[in-house]
From TrEMBL:
Keyword Transmembrane helix in record: no
InterPro entries attached to this UniProt entry: DNA/RNA_pol_sf (IPR043502), Rev_trsase/Diguanyl_cyclase (IPR043128), RNaseH_sf (IPR036397)
UniProt cross-references to PANTHER family, sorted A to Z: GAG-LIKE PROTEIN, PHD-TYPE DOMAIN-CONTAINING PROTEIN
Alphabetical keyword list: Nucleotidyltransferase, RNA-directed DNA polymerase, Transferase
Nucleotidyltransferase in keyword set: yes
Molecular functions (GO terms): nucleic acid binding; RNA-directed DNA polymerase activity
Naturally occurring in which organism (per UniProt): Caerostris extrusa (Bark spider)
Protein's recorded name: Reverse transcriptase
Length: 279
């Protein structure tokens, strides 16, 4: 929470602005959620918590349509690039200013010996129903506005992002370097920083300052050091078995896998045939 104050992502509400009509403000409960290692915490705001009226903030917020392609489509497209790159936007939600901050009020104190104070979040709150849509819409609007200046980055921002995660690439080192440079410039123009860079091309990672790289960043499959987005790793391992098709399928309800078994048999016959399929 001190980080929120330091970065002006929340502000103390002046005493003369605390008392407002009930329909003009909302107080959000909040709690910390640790990461996997337990050394860092993310503050999550409970937009689904109901007030004394029995209505929550999320009940009133519009979720918005899905703006990005599904993850499977993005991953398949990502696998087609000769030069791959991944990164994510640092604190994406917290880089987007929100006008109606009175509906994101919280109470907090940094010590049990101090009085509780009223604050309001000035940025998109993690845990509110509209947060993903607002963040993605801002990113895509930036891409549309900057299409003339950054054509490669604009296309990647519209097609190769899954919320704040970038999974993109190119077919040559030169094109990949241009794409990387354009992405950094375009996003920085809006105050967005790309970090946790990883690539199978050393030229790309070497151009990034060390604190913005993913530790042990490598996308090489052969050396077994794939360390990038968890979703990418899981999908990559499951996409096609490296040792051939799966020999056994287990389930508590085996009948559900009859169709899958038939498809595997069809695939085996097709792979042994002389038919060539052009993709």
């Amino acid at each position: 929470m001190e980080d929120y104050l330091k970065l002006v992502h929340m502000e103390l509400i002046p005493e003369n602005e605390i008392d407002v009509p009930a329909n003009s403000s909302f107080y959000l409960p909040h709690h910390p959620v640790p990461n996997k290692s337990g050394d860092k915490f993310r503050v999550v705001f409970d937009g689904s918590a109901k007030s004394s009226t029995g209505v929550s903030l999320n009940d009133k917020l519009m979720v918005g349509p899905q703006l990005q392609a599904d993850l499977t489509t993005i991953l398949i497209r990502f696998r087609m690039h000769k030069i791959a790159m991944t990164a994510d936007i640092e604190k994406m939600y917290r880089q987007i200013r929100l006008k109606d901050s009175n509906f994101q009020r919280i109470v907090w104190r940094d010590s049990p010996f101090k009085p509780i104070q009223d604050f309001r979040l000035t940025r998109i709150a993690y845990g509110t129903a509209s947060a993903p849509y607002l963040a993605v819409k801002c990113l895509q609007q930036l891409a549309i506005q900057e299409e003339q200046n950054f054509p490669l980055a604009s296309k990647a921002a519209l097609k190769d992002f899954y919320v704040d995660d970038l999974m993109s690439g190119a077919n040559s080192t030169t094109e990949a370097l241009d794409l990387q440079a354009q992405l950094i410039q375009m996003l920085s123009s809006a105050g967005l920083v790309l970090r946790k860079w990883a690539s199978n091309c050393n030229e790309l990672t070497n151009l990034i300052q060390e604190d913005l790289r993913l530790p042990n960043a490598s996308l090489s499959i052969d050396d077994g050091t794939v360390k990038t987005l968890d979703a990418f790793i899981a999908a990559l391992k499951r996409f096609i078995s490296r040792r051939g098709k799966c020999s056994d399928i287990y389930s508590d309800c085996g009948s559900n896998f009859v169709g899958a078994k038939r498809k595997l048999m069809e695939f085996e016959k097709l792979s042994k045939s002389k038919i060539t399929i052009k993709m």
